Amino acid sequence: MSVAGRVARIGLGAAGAWMGYAWLPHLLTATGTWRGPASSGAVALTFDDGPDPSWTPRVLDILAARGARATFFVIGRRAAAAPEVVRAIADGGHEVANHTWSHRSLWFCGPRRTHEEIARCHDTIGEQTGVAPRHFRPPWGMVNAAMWRALRRTGERCVFWSLQPEGQRAQSAETQARYVVTRARGGAIVDLHDAEGVAGAPARLAAALPAMLDGLLGAGYRLATITDVLAGAPASREAR
Ligand SMILES: [Zn+2]
User: pLDDT for 109-153, tens place per residue?
Assistant: First the structure.
C-alpha cells in the first residue's frame, strides 16, 4: 500500500474509533432524562456553568422573592473557588448538581479524564453541601461511552433539557422569557446559564428571569428542583 493509502487508512481508523466513542453513545441519550412527568404540574428551571460570585446571588434573590426552587448544575472548579455561593444555593432550598470539573467537552476526554471530570465535581459538591449530587449534565449535552460507566459509579442520572431559550446565539431577555412561558408544559426542564459561557448570558438571564418566573407561576406551574419534578413533586413541597 502507498504511504498515502496507509495514512488514509490510519485516519479512517481513528475517525471510526472516535465515532464509536464520542458519537455513537449519543444513541444512548434516550436513556438520559429530557423531561419529567407532565402530571407533576411543575417546571424545573436549571442553571448551568456557575457558581458565579456576582450573578448567582442575584439569581438566588429573584428565585427567593417568588418562593421558587431550582437546580444548579455547577462546574466543580468554579464551586471550589466560591464555596460560599454553593452553600447559599443549598441554603436556599435548591439542588446542586454536577456539570463536570472543568467543563471540557466529553467528546475530547478519554475514559480516565471523563471519570475524573465527573468524580471530582461529584466529590466537591458532596463535601461542600453534605449531600451527594444525584444529577449530572454533560457540557453542551455532548456525551461519550465512558460517561455512562462513570455515572453508574457516582450514582447520578444524566439530565438534558426540554427547553433551551438561549443556545450558542444570544437571545434578548424578552425573547427568552416569552419562549419559556409559551412553550412550558408540566415536567419541562429549562436550560439556563447563571455564569459566563456565551458572552453576556448571565446579564440577559437576570433580566429575563422575573418575567419568566411570573409567567410560569401565573400559568399555575410550581417551580421545583429536578429531584422533585422527576419524583412527581409531592404537594407538601409546594414552592409557591
Ligand atoms: Zn455548561
Answer: 999 999 999 999 999 999 999 999 999 999 999 999 999 999 999
Residue 235 pLDDT = 44
Q: Annotated catalytic residue: which of 99, 103, 193, 228?
A: 193
The residue range of the domain holding 80 is 7-230
The residue among 142, 115, 144, 119 whose CA lies nearest residue 132 is 119
| Nine-digit cell string for 63 | 428565585
Is the residue at 50 inside a domain?
Answer: yes
| CB neighbourhood size of 139 (10 A) | 21
Domain of 60: which CATH number? 3.20.20.370
Contact 22, 144 (CB under 8 A): yes
What is the 219 CA–ligand 1 centroid distance (Å)? 28
Evaluate whether residue 78 is within a structural domain.
yes
Tens digits of residue pLDDT in 152-210: 999 999 999 999 999 889 999 999 999 999 999 999 999 999 998 888 999 999 999 99
The yes-or-no answer on residue 115 being catalytic is no
Total domains present in the chain: 1
| Residue 196 CA, ligand 1 centroid: distance in Å | 9
* Nearest-5° Cα angle at 178, 189 to 163: 20
Report how far ligand 1's centroid is from the alpha carbon of 138 (Å).
7
Residue 48 CA, ligand 1 centroid: distance in Å: 5
Tens digit of pLDDT for each residue in 43-68?
Answer: 999 999 999 999 999 999 999 999 99
Catalytic annotation, pick one of 48, 52, 194, 228: 48
| Catalytic residue flag (residue 103) | no
1 domain residue, yes or no: no
Helix-then-strand count for the chain, H and E: 9, 7
pLDDT of residue 7: 67
